[in-house]
């Protein structure tokens, strides 16, 4: 009986194939990828510039929004240029170390965004339920500590994945049917037992994103309870309107992600390219639309954007 003599050799180079089954359409698919990335880069950079340079916007809500915009830039830059290189130049070759670096930034930034959305919900809760104590509770010192905690949590929970992957022997096929690297997607190409990777990935998901969703839901239940106790209808409408942008961004961020996870778990009959496209939508769409949503729905930011783009209008 022949024995497999592959376990002694481990692949150090992988080949990202892009979107499997749609290779002949890569050039067309690259167009929305490029447009989305350009909008995300320009929109979020403009948002960061406006908030940092306009002293009147140095408030908790806008500082958290600045963090979100920064995370959006990192998330899209970690993925889209690699995808465009595959689509345009067939440059899908990637080393193991670079692949692990890419997935580290993708996963940690995704968790950072989830944490920022949670503190933005906390910000809205304080603003509506304790308006007179808003500035004394959310001081610049506390905002700095919250920001540090968010990024330490994201990097701290993802950092062990580097060692969980480095210990594996990759002796299977080194062609990855995706536009980027992802933890379990890469681990599946190992000949070793990856149960530790799977369970740790589950722990990270439950202790970060899932916990954030639960706390955001609780925050908004408390906000709604407080809002409906306000006697004035105009005041109720104004209070709810301050949460509108944040709710839109929450739905935009978690919605595609939840749908992608469900199709990954239960949609075994769904074509592989659908899974890859859904995974890319989770990364492409929120960074592109977040600055647009806040630019349209937030008057202070909208006025500053108009002033920069059309100085003669104001």
Automatic annotation (TrEMBL):
Keywords (alphabetical) are: Cell membrane, G-protein coupled receptor, Membrane, Olfaction, Receptor, Sensory transduction, Transducer, Transmembrane, Transmembrane helix
Q: Which intervals hold domain G-protein coupled receptors family 1 profile? A: 43-294
Q: What Pfam families does the record point to?
A: 7tm_4
Q: Where are the transmembrane segments?
A: 27-50, 62-91, 103-122, 142-165, 198-223, 243-262, 274-296
Record flagged with keyword Cell membrane = yes
What Gene Ontology molecular-function terms does this entry list?
G protein-coupled receptor activity; olfactory receptor activity
Primary location group: membrane
Mention any one GO cellular component term assigned to this protein in its UniProt record: plasma membrane
Q: What is the lineage of its organism?
A: Eukaryota, Metazoa, Chordata, Craniata, Vertebrata
Entry-linked CDD domains: 7tmA_OR52B-like (cd15221)
**Species per Swiss-Prot/TrEMBL record:** Tupaia chinensis
Cited function:
Odorant receptor.
Membrane topology value: Multi-pass membrane protein
Question: Has keyword Electron transport?
Answer: no
Concerning its family, UniProt says: Belongs to the G-protein coupled receptor 1 family.
InterPro entries for this protein:
GPCR_Rhodpsn (IPR000276), GPCR_Rhodpsn_7TM (IPR017452), Olfact_rcpt (IPR000725), OR51/52/56-like (IPR050402)
Name it: Olfactory receptor
Q: Where in the cell is it found?
A: Cell membrane; Membrane
* Source taxon at top rank: Eukaryota
């Amino acid at each position: 009986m022949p024995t497999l003599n592959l376990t002694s050799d481990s692949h150090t180079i992988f080949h990202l194939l892009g979107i499997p089954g749609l290779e002949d359409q890569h050039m067309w698919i690259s167009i929305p990828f490029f447009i989305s990335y350009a909008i995300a880069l320009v929109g979020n950079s403009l948002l960061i510039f406006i908030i940092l340079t306009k002293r009147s916007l140095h408030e908790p809500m806008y500082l958290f929004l600045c963090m979100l915009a920064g995370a959006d830039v990192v998330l899209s830059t970690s993925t889209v240029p690699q995808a465009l290189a595959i689509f345009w130049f067939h440059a899908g070759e990637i080393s193991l170390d670079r692949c692990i670096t890419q997935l580290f930034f993708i996963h940690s930034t995704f968790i950072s965004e989830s944490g920022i959305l949670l503190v933005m919900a906390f910000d809205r809760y304080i603003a509506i339920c304790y308006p007179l104590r808003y500035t004394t509770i959310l001081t610049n010192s506390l905002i700095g500590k919250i920001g540090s905690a968010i990024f330490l949590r994201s990097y701290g929970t993802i950092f062990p994945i580097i060692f969980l992957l480095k210990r594996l022997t990759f002796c299977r096929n080194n062609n990855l049917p995706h536009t980027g690297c992802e933890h379990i997607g890469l681990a599946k190409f190992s000949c070793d037992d990856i149960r530790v990777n799977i369970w740790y990935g589950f722990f990270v998901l439950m202790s970060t994103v899932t916990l954030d969703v639960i706390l955001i839901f609780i925050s908004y239940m408390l906000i709604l309870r407080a809002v409906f106790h306000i006697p004035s209808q105009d005041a109720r409408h104004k209070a709810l309107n301050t949460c509108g942008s944040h709710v839109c961004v929450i739905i935009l961020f978690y919605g595609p992600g939840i749908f992608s996870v469900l199709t990954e778990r239960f949609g075994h009959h769904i074509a592989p390219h659908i899974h890859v496209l859904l995974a890319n939508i989770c990364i492409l769409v929120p960074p592109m639309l977040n600055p647009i949503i806040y630019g349209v729905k937030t008057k202070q930011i909208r006025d500053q954007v108009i002033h920069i783009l059309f100085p003669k209008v104001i």
